[in-house]
Design a protein that fits this description.
The chain is α/β, with parallel strands linked by helices. The protein has one domain: Metal-dependent hydrolases (TIM Barrel, Alpha-Beta Barrel). The chain contains ten helices and eight strands. The protein is globular and about 50 Å long. It starts with a strand and ends with a helix.
Length: 254
Amino acid sequence: MPFPIIDAHIHLDQYSQIDQTKIIKELIHYHIKALIAVSTNLASAKQIKSLALAHKEVKPVYGYHPEQELPSEQELQQLINFLEEQKETMVAIGEVGLPYYLRQENSLLKVEPYIELLECFIIQAKNFQKPLVLHAVYGDAPIVCDLLEKHSVKLAHFHWFKGDKKTIERMVANGYCISVTPDILYKERTRNLVAVYPLHLIMVETDGPWQFSKEKTHPKMIHFTMREIAKIKKLPIKEVYETIFTTTERFYSL
């Protein structure tokens, strides 16, 4: 597909070095203009920083993924210091949010400390005037919307979003972005979401190295996603590419 596009959410540091090199080398061939490379903790953030310094196509995003144990006070302070040091070069704060899947595994896990941690990142994003990359699905999404509204934060990207109709309507009203993965090829839930969500608030992602098939996840897969979005929206493919590319580029100030 000759139209340019951006992978709006990928865990590039979780690929092997060989796969990282292959992906970055092949970006130009597949018309992938940039990778929004999110991190999961401080060690991950440092790897993303190194990749971004070496490759201009890698756009760094630093944060603490919620589907893990809470950081210690020392770990959190080190991460906060890192964010402060990198605020001019990072394109967003993320991946941050709430531990939905972790709570499915452990019903005794308290969500309140995670909410406090997320609010800390929301405040930092507002102070730095940076977007937020959010992991907030199902019943967690309204909680996150509450926090975003509390701090008047508009630049919010709910990656691989899953939620109810009421929350979707609220997110649309607030102008929050979502991103769609290749699961649009087989998930009715994702197809229904795309049908109702405004095109100008949609981005596309792989969430790699998460696998959707036997083939290793590669940014080239977002072209399949793009074609499905065009079919669902009943719009010319060129218009869909241009709109989503522009949305992603503007959202992340690329």
